[in-house]
Amino acid sequence: DKCIAVVPAAGVGSRMAADRPKQYLTIAGKTILEHSVERLLSLPEIQHVVIVVSKTDPYFPTLPLANDPRITVVDGGAERVDSVFSGLAAINDDNAWVMVHDAARPCVRLDDLRQLMVAAQQSECGAILATPVRDTMKRAKVNEQDNVIDHTVDREQLWHALTPQMFRAGQLREALTTALAQDAVITDEASALEFCGYSPVLVKGRADNLKVTQPEDLALAEFYLQQLLK
Ligand code: CTP
Ligand code: MG
């Protein structure tokens, strides 16, 4: 099946604290956003990418991507979920598969994209890339001044949710609408579907598909990109 990518790129990058939003920082010869979008477009099933940018963004129009016929640009919102919602509004085929991928994850590998695509299309409602938790997990006691351990959480069933996350456009839009109307905490696409009673599939992806978040992530992302682009 064909698949449309939605790339939320309307954040300000407050934790990166750079002179511009982090998706416009250059690593390994290109902006982080360009790396992310080009990886998605290298999948033959993805022939169209909806990029969600801030209304006042002066950087996007300067990129070659701005004149690429495979790209649609839409305005973002205050929160990531609003930006994703805005991206979905540009897709009129409810039955189309959408792959939502953070602009800030430039190191995703083609193999993982392919695996996700196969898993989603075989699933009931969709799938996400994720990695099993590696560290011992602690739950802190509530309402204590200092951080004190309450107990160790069994990590057997714990995963880190990554992107891309792949769902049917209509189903994702509906789930986001329902979840937002009921004030559910929605930090990724899957959480909206979970809220509506669906069980998206976890596809084990690579841990180096990091979300560039803080300054120290830049060197790591550059290293991974150099490996990947060899
Ligand atoms: N994003 C978005 N619209 C928002 C907020 C975030 O499209 N209102 C996008 C970001 O551009 C990024 C992705 O969602 O590609 C993941 O968000 P995050 O890593 O939190 O990026 P920022 O919100 O920009 O960073 P910070 O939270 O440090 O400000
Ligand atoms: Mg953010």
Report on this model:
This is 2-C-methyl-D-erythritol 4-phosphate cytidylyltransferase. The protein is of the alpha/beta class and 230 residues long. 28% of the residues lie in helices and 25% in strands. The chain has 6 helices and 11 strands. Strands 5-4-1-6-10-7-11 form a 7-stranded mixed β-sheet, sandwiched between helices. A two-stranded antiparallel sheet has the order 2-3. A hairpin with an 8-residue loop joins β8 and β9. The longest helix has 13 residues. It is globular. The structure holds cytidine-5'-triphosphate and magnesium ion.
Provide tags for this entry.
binds cytidine-5'-triphosphate; 7-stranded mixed sheet; 25% strand; two-stranded antiparallel sheet; 6 helices; 230 residues; alpha/beta
Secondary-structure map:
Elements: E1 3-9, E2 26-27, E3 30-31, H1 32-41, E4 46-53, E5 71-75, H2 80-88, E6 97-100, H3 110-122, E7 126-132, E8 137-140, E9 149-153, E10 159-168, H4 169-181, H5 189-195, E11 201-204, H6 217-229
Parallel strand pairs: 1-4, 1-6, 4-5, 7-11
Antiparallel strand pairs: 2-3, 6-10, 7-10, 8-9
Helix pairs in contact: 4-5
Bound molecules: cytidine-5'-triphosphate and magnesium ion.
Cytidine-5'-triphosphate is lined by residues 8-15, 21, 23, 52, 76-80, 83, 102-104, 211, 213.
Catalytic activity: 2-C-methyl-D-erythritol 4-phosphate + CTP + H(+) = 4-CDP-2-C-methyl-D-erythritol + diphosphate
GO molecular function: nucleotidyltransferase activity
InterPro entries: IspD, IspD/TarI, IspD/TarI_cytidylyltransf_bact, ISPD_synthase_CS, Nucleotide-diphossugar_trans
